[in-house]
Amino acid sequence: MTNRDNIVKKIIIGFRPKNKVCIDLGPGSGRWLKFIKSLSPKKLLAIDFDKNQKKKCLKYVDSFKISDFEVDKLSVNENTCELVIITEVLEHIRNYNLFLSEVFRISKNGTLIIVTMPNVCSFISRIRVIFGLLPVAIASDETHVNFFRKKDINRIFKKFGQNVNFYNSSFSLNPFKPKSKLRIKSITPFGNLDDSFIFTIKVKK
């Protein structure tokens, strides 16, 4: 488990999902669904844009739906969810404003939203640019269509009247092997250099 995953795990445990309605938007293989399931939520939901993930996730959830996050409304009633997980999803969505408006619609006042995404201005990405290479967030996955800096994230969520709480994680020291174990944990002044952003929003309605 990566440093990023350990931080997300601690956030989820601290939230205490027991007897709460939780949803994972873009669950992929279902690893966070499996973890949350072990914490006895009242109801566990999932929505993904990839129908190939359904078989992997069905055993963990009460409901699994397929949705195009670009254009579809989420098939969940408003003011339903108390924990929302969005890991490595926003960078795949061009029209993220519609998606986020739906996330806030299905959330209750006080809902915790946990988000992770690649940092286009990470330490190794800055070094890579010096050598004429693309930042990791761009070069690592051709399905990435949006790229974010910390100030972009603050600006986006401010439009929805929400405050963002960032968590420091770590950054790689090898610009040519982004997944190298040669990395260091960051502290607050250097959070802008982390490989990934991890942040939460406590929904205000």
**Percent range of helical residues:** 25-40%
Strand content: 15-25%
Order of neighbouring strands in the sheet with most strands: 3-2-1-4-5-9-6
- First-residue to last-residue Cα separation: 34 Å
What integer value in Å does the Rg equal? 17 Å
Mean of residue pLDDT values: 95
Helices and strands: which structural class?
alpha/beta
Quaternary organisation: single chain
Helix count, DSSP H or I runs of 4 or more residues: 7
Would you mind describing this structure in some detail?
This protein is α/β, with parallel strands linked by helices and 205 residues long. 27% of the residues lie in helices and 24% in strands. It has a seven-stranded mixed sheet with strand order 3-2-1-4-5-9-6. Strands 7-8 form a two-stranded antiparallel sheet. Helix 3 links the parallel strand 2 and strand 3. The model has no long low-confidence stretch (mean pLDDT 95).
Write the layout of secondary structure elements.
Elements: H1 3-15, E1 21-25, H2 31-37, E2 43-48, H3 54-57, E3 63-66, E4 81-87, H4 96-106, E5 107-118, H5 123-130, H6 136-139, H7 150-158, E6 165-167, E7 170-172, E8 183-185, E9 196-202
Parallel strand pairs: 1-2, 1-4, 2-3, 4-5
Antiparallel strand pairs: 5-9, 6-9, 7-8
